[in-house]
């Protein structure tokens, strides 16, 4: 069924994606401009925002919107939209005729409604109305471009050398705003291929005003100062340089012809923008029309930034919220108070202000400050109107639930089954074609490996070595993305595959255990010269690296090693052979070797590293020689590793779960020894292990809304994180003792499932008793018998002691207040 799209829902895209990259709020004093929210207006949050037509040949990591026709064949859209991106939010808009798309998150407006493969799950689909008024949006953007283009320069442009290349060096010292106005001769130098060096403080907004009606930008970009320069890439541009904008106020055409990734947002609202060559772009593209066969990477201009002469928005309210917790590391059963403060930073009164806190499952509600009320774990505070500059604060008190599994093991010999699996896709490449391939595990499962295997190139048109792999990396905990290019004169065939781990073990004894990976990816980036270079990443204690990946800025390098050793299991080392200088980023995800605790116990994953040295003949077959590495009988291969000597190359490997088949090619003419190996995950976990040494991270997000117009929807949420410690207690009473008739009720939290006895004491006298069925890591309400006489004593006392005696674990006494 089509989704009905409202103006409010359209604005939700700004809230969903504007803070994704870059510094979402100004963090320094705006000394040479004006702090402005959503300077790009309706273009805020869109990686490609085009008034007219577009022709695209590769993916966009963010959302895209076109007011005209759009030509694309199976274009992937939205791979970097946040995990919480609403299913009904627009992520793809084409007002004219359209191509075909793989939309990773969100919904689409197309007419007719066809050509979209929705990968975002339930609730996604076609929008019934166009959520964007392109004419109004580009009226604002043209005015903005002219205003910024007229701003006075605050930085200097001079001749210099960056990375050994002649360059225009742009130097600015402001931590908030740097403006550079290029001369016609400066623009001509860039058109001729002159490199550009940018030396400004990280986090500052940087506007590069480029003159001329038909400018071309060539060369490469570098960041640094003096004699220390690094080539611009995703890792050093995203976040710290989200505010970098190339402004073309006079241009009718803009051509980018870059030898590496092109950094920064392109603001060219009157121009036909063409990316003739580039590794990819790293920023937004705002244009009259857009043609590119390269990826556009998500790097959004900050939602609040210091800019020159932004359009004013008088008389608009802007509510924002902050949140904090009274304790960052409470023990299970301890009380925590969240403080929430809503502020109107706009210049008009905000009406109908509501603070909302959806409490996470790992805490139990105790109380909230008036007028806040709680229902079903959701706290709502209707605070009414807030004058410009006014604030209101409210507190919410909760109990941190004891950690499930913080007790003794019930069956020390029990184990659980694990079943890895694989997914693959055939890749056909025309001569000269570059493709981005994305594969995903089942929802919630974890990626452990992902690679290409090159199979064939048409006879007489080249060799397998003419097929170049530019990227193969984990795109999320459960997905993989790779970039492959065919430099042969004929067609090429390859295969992309991934190996996946289940999110949970198989059930045993009526329960399962969850696997987990660290949310953060370990990564390293650098510039590497000709020859062989190595780089390493290291996972934290208690984890091992999986899903090793890499990104190369050009095809002048290839991976010669991807390896770790059993003696240093947390370290993963990459080796590349380069024929020209290259920028590379290496990464891995970190799999926790202990499954999550349930029912008082955990298990260890069992991993075996099978290492094999093979002799690669001096003369190998045209498509390489195959070498197999096989896991033990009770294990499956989950990560392939290798270490090749100079002159030996890999064309990929074929996952057969039990084994890996590596294809190697030797061009030295002499037999060479190479290492091919496989990390194997055993079919069963280790036996039960008592207790849980691992704390639990609990993230609590609060939001604020108003019925009045809100200038910036990106600052309406805030979170507070607590890390609950296992502690010594296995049970705790929580909240209040509530009296109703002849019964008293109290919530009991436990780290173990089982049974327990509950007593209520006033002083030394026991006034109520009962039994309780305990649930691991959750609350259960205990109902206790209470006589009329004792009921009066309890009510008069105001505070009582609740004693919980579990079948397993020690007895715990907690003081709680009484409520009728």
UniProtKB/TrEMBL annotation:
Residues 1-26 form the signal peptide. The keyword Iron does not apply. Pfam families: DUF11 (PF01345), pAdhesive_15 (PF20597). Residues 318-401 form the DUF11 domain. It comes from the Bacteria. Keywords: Signal. Residues 40-297 form the Choice-of-anchor A domain. Gene3D superfamilies: 2.60.40.3080. This is DUF11 domain-containing protein. The lineage of its organism: Bacteria, Bacillati, Actinomycetota, Actinomycetes, Propionibacteriales.
